[in-house]
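Issue: ligand-bound run for pseudouridine-5'-monophosphate - logging full I/O for the record.

Environment: standard queue, default settings, no custom constraints.

Inputs:
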Amino acid sequence: MRLHPEVAKALQSRKPVVALESTVITHGLPRPTNLELAQTLEAIVREAGAVPATIAVVKGQVAVGLEPEELEALAKDEGAEKASLWNLGALLAQGKWAGTTVAATAFLAHKAGISVFATGGIGGVHPHPYDESADLLELSRTPILVVSAGPKSILNLAATLERLETFGVALLGYRTDHLPAFHSPKSPYPLPARVETPEEAAQAFQAARGLGLPGATLVLNPISQGLPFEQVQRWVEQATQEAARTGITSRALTPFLLRRISELSGGQTDAANLRLLQENARLAAEIARALSQGGGPSRR
Ligand code: PSU
Ligand code: MN
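Outputs:
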């Protein structure tokens, strides 16, 4: 694992750092939007006073913080793999390039000593065919703070929320009482806790870490100008039926569904995805700052 010098320095001096995942770059968004977005997220984190650490697999090495040329090469590489926990070791051994999922990024960021991580939407339980993201299990055993706009809208939200509860993942609605639904700011499902400020989110995370709770704290940040929930559900239903009919499963399922609802919505879901990613990066940087001002989370 290679720590970028700027990231290493920030961690040493307890300056705020925000980890960013990279499957959204390699598999979540169309080219060349993906590169622009990746660069924009890093810039947003910097503007908000934190150091960005985009995590990816670069030529068989885990990189925590990428050089600009590496970010560009990753975004342009159509053969880049999707690194989750089940293939991470093999991808390293084989010298591959890969985007890291939420599961892999959370694991690696925590290992590197980073406390805050921003993504778009987390993976979860798919309605059909049977598929469940490794994000859920990893979030249950990695004490890191993750900012997302909710589980991705292609998922069975009720089942995903149940899983998060069962697995003991701490959930904080950011200025909301209901689970945000990625492209939509609100779903019908109530959350167990709510915070109003980055400081309150940081305090809840520190309290959980102080106890030594094993799981992540998920800050759920509703998209500011989202799409109507029922509308998105209709696109998702059609895309899901197509996936079932054509036999798309496993790690190909999430990328297929995201691309298909983007086509069905005339690009509206991609526009929403870009917006929520930027909003989450900003909030994550604010929380990272609040954490570092509070002395940082107590370590186990
Ligand atoms: N957030 C986005 N777009 C994405 C993802 C997240 O806005 O493409 C990625 C994340 O890396 C997440 C992955 O971990 O999709 C989920 O894939 P799966 O369901 O196969 O675990
Ligand atoms: Mn899967």
